[in-house]
Amino acid sequence: xxxxxxxxxxxxxxxxxxxxxxxxxxxxxxxxxxxxxxxxxxxxxxxxxxxxxxxxxxxxxxxxxxxxxxxxxxxxxxxxxxxxxxxxxxxxxxxxxxxxxxxxxxxxxxxxxxxxxxxxxxxxxxxxxxxxxxxxxxxxxxxxxxxxxxxxxxxxxxxxxxxxxxxxxxxxxxxxxxxxxxxxxxxxxxxxxxxxxxxxxxxxxxxxxxxxxxxxxxxxxxxxxxxxxxxxxxxxxxxxxxxxxxxxxxxxxxxxxxxxxxxxxxxxxxxxxxxxxxxxxxxxxxxxxxxxxxxxxxxxxxxxxxxxxxxxxxxxxxxxxxxxxxxxxxxxxxxxxxxxxxxxxxxxxxxxxxxxxxxxxxxxxxxxxxxxxxxxxxxxxxxxxxxxxxxxxxxxxxxxxxxxxxxxxxxxxx
Length: 414
Known about the structure:
abc type-2 transporter like fold; 2 domains; four-stranded mixed β-sheet; 4 strands
C-alpha cells in the first residue's frame, strides 16, 4: 500500500511539471504531425503514392511479341498502376513526354519479334526504347521495371525454344532446315501462353479470400515517436531517483515507518506508471486527433504495458549505473537517440542487414514498432504473444540487474 502511495505521488508530481509534459507529450505529437505532413498523410489522400501513371506505347512491330508487350500495359494486373495510351509514331510519343503529359514513352521497334525469335539477327535498332521524363524519375523507373520484366520473360522463352530445338535435333525428330522455324514457333507460343495472354504479372501470391488490410503510415509514425520520447521519460524518472538521494528525500523516507523495499518498489513503480500514462495518452491522442487506427484494443493495451515495463527497466538501469543526476540526463539522452536509430524510430529497419536487425532487438523501440505495425495490419493479441513476451522478458532482466546494483550502492542511505 505504501509503495502504491509513493508511486502515485511521483506520477502526480511529474505531470504537474509543464516542461516535462511538453517534452513527454507535446514534442512527440508535433513530430508526428510533421512526419505526416511530409509523407502526405495529412493531405487527405490515403491511396497509393503511384497510381494511374500516364504512359504512351508505340508498337511498330507486326509480330506477336511486340503485340504481347503492348497488351501487357493494359492488363488487369497493371490497371491501377498505369494509364496507357497509344501513338502512331515515335516522334508524337516523345513530344508527349517533352510536354510533361506522360511519364514515359515505350517504343517497340519494327522487327522486334523477328529479332527475339531468331528469324533475323538482332541489332541496336531492334531494342525497345524507353523515352523517360526527367521530371518524373521514379515514375519512369516503374515503367522501365515493367518493360524489363517482360524482356526477362521473353529471354526465358527464347532460351526455352533453343533448348527445345536442340533436343528435337538430337532425337532426330526434325531436320536442321526446320530448326529455325520450329524455334520461332516455340518462342512465340511461350510468350503467348503467359497467363492467358497477359505477359506481365505483378501478383505472385495467391489472393486471400479476406478483405485486404490497408496500413496507415500514421500507424508507424505515431508509435515510433511515442516510443522515442518514452525513453526520455524513463531516464527522467531515473534522474529524479538520484536527485532525491542527493537532497536527502530518500533518507527521510527511510526514517519513516516504511520499509526500504516498499520505498524502492514505489519509486520503480512510479517510473512504470508514468511511462504507461505517457504511452496511453499519446496513442489515445493520435487516435482522436488524427484518426489513427491502431487495431485490436486489447492488443494495444497489453503492448503499451509491455513497452512501459521494458523502457522503465532501461531507465532504472541508467540510474543504477550513473553517479549523479546529471550523468543520468546525459546517458539517458544518448540512449534515447541511439535506441531511436537502432530501433527504427527514425527510419524503418526492415531492409537493413540481418546483423542490424538482430542488434535492434536490444531496444524496446524495435519490439514496440513491430508490434504496432502488426496490429495495424490486423493482428490481435494472440499473434502478438512473441513481441509481448520479448518486452516483458527484457523488463524482467533489466529490473533484476538494476535493483541489485541499486542496493549495492546504498541508494536509501541519503
